[in-house]
Structures are given as C-alpha cells and as structure tokens.
Amino acid sequence: MKILIVRVSSLGDVVHNMPMVADIHRHFPGAQIDWVVEEGYTSLVGLNRHVHQIIPIALRRWRKTLFSTATRAEIGAFRRQLQAERYDVVFDTQGLLKTSVVMRMARLAPKGRRIGLANATEGSGYEALSRIFHDQSIPVGLRTHAVTRARLVAAGALGYRLEGPPDFALQPPDPARWAWMPEQPYVVFLHGTARAAKQWPQDRWIALGQALAGRGLSVLLPWGNAREQEAARQLAAGIPSAIVLPALPMMQAVALVQQARLVIGLDTGLTHIAAAYGKPTVELYCDSPRWKTEGNWSPAIVNLGDLGASPREEDVLRTALELLS
C-alpha cells in the first residue's frame, strides 16, 4: 500500500501529525508512507523513521511571486514529483482549501481514496469547502487534541482502533556539538511567539532565569526574528550567564531542545518538538486553550496555564525544579 500525507504547516502541527505515521506503520508495516510538507520543514519530517519520501512544497514562497517564470517552473517540478507515484490513500489532515487542492493533484491507484476531515475542531482554521475533494470525510469531536485528531482520521479510514500513547518516531538529530552549545547542562527558554497575547511577562522570565542560574544552570535564549532577538538580549541582561544564541537553522534548533536538560516554552513549535522527544518540558499557556496541544503523553511534560489564565511564576519555578530533580 502507498499512502500520501498532505500536512504542509505549521511547525507545531507538523509535529502533532507524526504519531499518525507510527500508527499506520504499526498496522501496515509494509506500507510506503510519503509526506508533502513546506520546504522549511523537510529536515524535521526526515527525522521520522517511518516516512519513505518527502515531497517539499513552497506555498508560502510561491504565493509572493505566483506569476513569475521561476515560480511556475518550480510548481511544475513539484507537480511532476507529486504525480510520480499512484497512491492507494491520500490524507489531507489540515482541512484547508489549499491543501485539499494539493490532495486532488496527487494520482490515485485503482480504487484509491482521498481522505480528509469532516468538520472543524473548536478554534481551528478548517475550511468546509475542502470536503468537495474528499472521497471520505472523517468526523472528529469539537474538542479533539491535535495529535488525536490526525490519528483518528487515519484510524477511521484504514479500519483500526487507536492503541496506546502517541509515538512520534523521531530519531535524534545530528549529535554534533555546535559552537554555541555549552559543555555543562543547560535550560532553554522558548520565550518568543508570533502573537503578543501568548507571551509570558518578561519580568517573570528574568526571575525564573535568575533562580535557575543560581543553581548552576546556563539559560539559552533562541530567537526567530529581530523582535525576538531584542527580547532575548533584554532577558540576558537580567539573567546571569544567559546566552543569546545565533540564528539557528532547523536541525540545530531541534538539537537545541533535544539535548537540553530542561525546556520551558510557550505554545510554539519548538516547545512541541521538545515534548515529542519526551524531554523534561514545561509548556506555558498564556492565551491559547491547553486542551488543543498540551503534551499529555509523558510525566516529564507539565502544562501550566490556559486560555486567559497565565501561569504563575512560583508554579513554573516549582515545576522546573521538580523536573530537574
């Protein structure tokens, strides 16, 4: 059986889609599982030991220059790669019109099927029009966790029941010790997020960092844009021995959290990667519903806060020290 998964973005959603792959592999160990994903995430999907072929797509980049000759040539090359196989099952677990169009572009084997979501979950970006491209639409509960949602779509289409906790099947990244990586154990603060309301107050990060630095731990501060870089510098000014990292490519960012002693982060992609690896992780929910993405598969992952209920500084410090012990 040949299976194609269309889940192009975002970073956290790509991570939460991975247990679906392990479920399929467990029930159909001989299946070939391919994946269409945004070009920036191909190296991450490449860490999943059950994915056979990764087909990169560049929707974010193409839409800026859609009518240029170079972009049209790239789209043509993508289409040829996508259609090089005939698939028995094609899944669109994103539920958007753009991803359902990609699903429709894939070629089916005889009796092949296109499978997608029948409905939105609460607060999701689901687009009902995507159903016109489905041969089968799988319903899910309105408050279904992001990991469970993808697993249920695959189980419903392929006729098996969900069993056990999610398996992300992520191999470790390159074990190389990068120049920015300290010799001693370190804590990562994932303090940056695209939406201001999801941020945790800077004074709380500083107080937390001071408490951890007082216990001999280095605090590493990554960033993803100029605004986050400046915020990292301000945090480092108040935290002894804190390190503002250079800009990190995807695999170095994955290595950062995978080799950390502890990760404390907002509701962002790298935090979810740390949780997928089962690292000691404190997930901070300041203005997003915890039920949607919380790491609930390991006692090493603790989720604090919720929509409209920012975590208290003392609770985060107590939890961090418990995980470190």
Describe the protein in words.
The protein has helices spanning 11-27, 42-45, 59-62, 69-82, 97-105, 146-158, 202-213, 226-238, 250-258, 269-276, 290-293, 313-324; strands at 2-6, 32-38, 53-57, 86-92, 107-117, 136-138, 186-190, 218-221, 243-244, 262-266, 281-285, 301-305. The protein has 2 domains: 2-158, Glycogen Phosphorylase B (Rossmann fold, 3-Layer(aba) Sandwich); 186-324, 3-Layer(aba) Sandwich (Rossmann fold), CATH 3.40.50. 43% of the residues are buried. With 325 residues, the chain is of the alpha/beta class. The protein starts with a strand and ends with a helix. Helix 1 (11-27) runs parallel beside helix 10 and helix 7 packs across helix 8 (226-238). Strand 4, helix 5 (97-105) and strand 5 (107-117) form a beta-alpha-beta unit. The strands form 2 sheets. Strands 3-2-1-4-5-6 form a 6-stranded parallel beta sheet, sandwiched between helices. It has a 6-stranded parallel beta sheet with strand order 9-8-7-10-11-12, with helices on both faces.
